[in-house]
Amino acid sequence: MTPSTLFYLLITIVIIVFVIDTLLDFLNALHFNDEIPKEVADVYPEDEYQKSVAYKKVNFKFKLVSSSVSLILMLLFFIFDGFAIVDNFARSLSDNPIVIGLIFFGVIMIGSDILSTPAAYYKTFVIEEEFGFNKSSKVTFFTDKLKGLIMLIIVGGALLALIIWFFELTGKSFWIYAWGLISVFTLAMNMFYAKLIVPIFNKQSPLENGALRDTIETYAKKVGFQLKDIYVIDGSKRSTKANAYFSGFGSEKRITLYDTLINDLSNEEIVAVLAHEVGHYKKKHIVFNLILSVVLTGITLWFLSLFISNPLLSEALGVSQPSFHVGLVAFGILYSPISEVTGLIMNSVSRKFEYEADAYAKSTYCGTALINSLKKLSKKNLNNLTPHPAMVFIHYSHPTLLQRIKNIKG
């Protein structure tokens, strides 16, 4: 295979992925006006349903435009040797391969973030604002962007520097050390994300003593779930949408409730949501997902080690001097079809786990309360109740509301 052939193959893959995603969006859009199934007909009154339809249509058009612009910019970057230009700039500043790699990805990531900011701003302050979701100020929006960029530079930069160092030191065997590094990092994030990362963006406060905390603690004791921390996060600072999540292992596990969730649901419904999260823990879903993620990361890095030293990868992107960082970009695109397949597997497993967690909540607490909470959250978030089956199969990590209700009742 020649560099030219690989170049066109890379572009073809990028376009095919875009076409498939866009086709799925179009198929999904055909169901926007479907009649709501009787099992969930009480979720939306007619006026609320029309609002949800409008919300889906606006987001569909927005995604179509923004993804098309992103595709055009990416193709232009390919055609006009953007990777070679950035690589030459990085090499003009240093001879160290680690520093070159950091500058290369730093320029691309920062440039990408700047270009995507107008779309993110429009999404937040026009679309989400119009439908009553946005509570974020412009200061918060840009502060979040800056914090995210700083974290990417520090954390992402450190990981990338170590991986390039492993490659320079061990050659093709680098994948073993990189796998170990990423696995430890993944475990640490699962353990300490709520303590280390969340406070950078949100304020977390212990749930105050009262009926809700007593009900949660009573349930936790009943199912043998050792619970040390229950926190409330100020999600209303940015959006009216509600959520809850479980994080950590062992002594570090904690439950976090969005303040919007507490405002929208009854105590019984909140505990039903938490019972679902406890179900994930009791059924070992969190551990399984962690192991599966680590295994897939190892497979990906092993494949990377087979191709990364091939100068064809760099040459295909117009870079004459082979390097790890340019090869990584080309490999990432080549590997994307495999990533789509592994994504299908992960989503399929995730949907199965959601059913199991729902069943656990039903058996240990109350299925009716869980159904009511799911309905309220779907209405509050204007969720799509009639998505196309292909969209669900490929992209949904959770079953649809109708599927979950039937599973709980059945």
Automatic annotation (TrEMBL):
> Which species is the source of this protein?
Aquimarina brevivitae
Instruction: Tell me which residues bind Zn(2+).
Output: H276, H280, E354
Where does the record place it? Endoplasmic reticulum membrane
Q: Which UniProt keywords apply?
A: Endoplasmic reticulum, Hydrolase, Membrane, Metal-binding, Metalloprotease, Protease, Transmembrane, Transmembrane helix, Zinc
One GO molecular-function entry: metalloendopeptidase activity
Write down what this protein is called.
Answer: STE24 endopeptidase
Q: Which residues form the active site?
A: E277, D358 (proton donor)
Q: Where is the Peptidase M48 domain?
A: 206-409
- GO BP, one annotated term: CAAX-box protein processing
Span-the-membrane segments of this chain are 6-27, 64-86, 98-115, 148-167, 173-193, 286-308, 328-346
Q: Name the protein family.
A: Belongs to the peptidase M48 family.
Q: How is the cofactor bound?
A: Binds 1 zinc ion per subunit.
Q: Does the keyword Protease apply?
A: yes
Does the UniProt entry include the keyword Hydrolase? yes
Q: Which Gene3D superfamilies match?
A: Metalloproteases ('zincins'), catalytic domain (3.30.2010.10)
Q: Which InterPro entries match?
A: CAXX_Prtase_1, Peptidase_M48, Peptidase_M48_N
Q: Which membrane topology term applies here?
A: Multi-pass membrane protein
Q: Where is the CAAX prenyl protease 1 N-terminal domain?
A: 33-203
Which cofactor does this sequence's record say it needs? Zn(2+)
